Amino acid sequence: MRREEARKKAQALVEKMTIEEKASQMRYNAPAIKRLGIPAYNWWNESLHGVARAGQATVFPQAIGLGATFDTELLGEVADAIATEGRAKYNAYSGQEDRDIYKGLTFWGPNVNIFRDPRWGRGHETYGEDPYLTSRLGVAYVKGLQGDGETMKAAACAKHFAVHSGPEALRHEFDAEVSKKDMHETYLPAFRALVEEAGVESVMGAYNRVNGEASCASPTFQKILKEDWKFQGHFLSDCWAIRDFHESHMITATPRESAALAVNTGCDLNCGNTYLHVLKALEAGLIQEKTITEAVVRLFTTRYLLGMFDGSEYDTIPYSEVESPAHLKLARKAARESMVLLKNNGILPLKKEKLKSIGIIGPNADSRAALIGNYHGTASRYVTIQEGIQEYLGEDVRVYSSVGCELFKDRTEGLAYPGDRLSEAKIVAENSDVVILCVGLDETLEGEEGDTGNSYASGDKVDLKLPKVQRELMEAVAETGKPVVLCLMAGSDIDLGFAAEHFDAVLQMWYPGAQGGYAAAEILFGDVSPSGKLPVTFYQSLEELPAFTDYSMKGRTYRYMEHAAQYPFGYGLTYGDVRVVSAEVIPEEHGVVIQAEAENGGAMETDEVVQVYLKNLDSPLAPRNPVLCGFTRVHLSPGEKRTVQIPVRECAFYVVDEKGMEKEEGSRFLFYAGCSQPDLRSLELTGNRAVEIPFEKK
Fold this sequence. Notes:
CATH class of the largest domain: Alpha Beta
Oligomer: single chain
Radius of gyration: 25 Å
Largest sheet: 6 strands, mixed
CATH architecture of the largest domain: Alpha-Beta Barrel
Distance between the termini: 44 Å
Structural class: alpha/beta
CATH topology of the largest domain: TIM Barrel
Strand order of the largest sheet: 9-14-13-12-10-11
């Protein structure tokens, strides 16, 4: 159904409503209007890495892990699977007249905020720190979720618009001050791509203010969305963000003033309860009825586009699609592609036939929580790292195990002394040919402020270190002198200095989803080569970064950092040895194509991500360092060469000035084509230098 047709139908339906009925439909938990045949509808649903919070569903790797795949095709397939499961559940729930929260077709994802600071607790909900990577993966996700049928398969939401990345503890009263250059160069591009290229159906405002304006009632943001980008979908608030107007931001005095400010500025839907005051605001002359009517028309346009009143070709999707074998297979593939090999002295892949015993140690080894991140569904089966390895090895290799320590508490048993599992961990290591040490975080240690999953230790990180008990465990295991493969399960930059010095291999697993244990075993034992790349910088320390509350990009992320990284953005090893051996620039009408030849000089087949970076040699407005402008995955057998073509858009040549305006400036450019970023640290870690291609733009 075209939007014009859906809007006409919405207008005709809304015309029949009383003002009280219209106002009731602007809340996320919209009640039924029985006389018009309108069922109740709860707009709130989540799909960050699978249908969330409504029972059984496929649990894919957390978003940051999906970001590490650098695989747009995969993101589209994952999103399509999520939409299929969402439809299957919606069809089944509707058949039971169950219209509860998390059971609709309006999914509040993806999160395309920029992970600008490693302390941010919600960073693992994003695709990383780079605007280009985020936009490409976000567009693929939205297109996959919304589909290309006669009706929309599910409705996606770009959140949190737009300058939002912590601190979590301050988000209800914080004012993010940001230059127009940083706004348009870093914080807005992904949102723009989702609106202009993917046609995202909704946009969610953030909690914080930006340059003094509340994000959910920002004239600046609404102009950008609706006038500059021609956004035609609906706009909604983050949950209870409008209440913050009068309780925390102090930009209004009463709930009715807050409701009026939001509605008048263009916020159609309230996640929260402040829009219970819409009618009082109307009576006080703070809102006009036509403004309310227009908001409700936009909301019902979305419902018509989803086929909620006239039927949809997706109404027949059966419940058997929920956590189907095909979706589980896809989740396993995504987990394999997400894992990033940071160090390998040759110990990996492990040879099953050469092992008599293996030790699996650490608080995340047998942890379901470490598989799933936040905003997750419920899997029918969770395969932890320990279980995946045990199943892979069968009876052939003896497996010893020890939790080693709790995630952050100083003992595992309440009556025991501190460090009560350290001696067991040492014993396990001493009795093992090799140790798999699984450390890291989970949603109780990095996540969202106020989330019930973060009851004991929540939100942002104070530093880049693992909890003290885990550091002590690492030291104890290192002292045994046994070969150690460190598996890190975390959604952000963790200081790996000790691991890099003392352990034989380091594998970043993120939160790999309910199939994560299977994928881990396949990679550790060489059935599959690791191929993920870091979507964030792993810094040497926080000392080189500006204050957490400073939203300037100076010194932040790989584009503007001034020091060498511990592990750089775009970095990740494989079991092959792929390098770009030659590359050339082919001009096209709307940009250029980088034609690169990649060769696998190693002994194992592998996926690899060929990456293209661009440096403007003339303009002082260009970012300090070369910027990612293209990438593609390629699979290569040992000795195989393959030519890939990577399109680079015309906008990659633009710079953003201090007024936030894009413009062409300079004619001399340098392209880099390789399997990592073209920085000295990546060269030091990989030994592979990117191919440099000078290019003069006429």
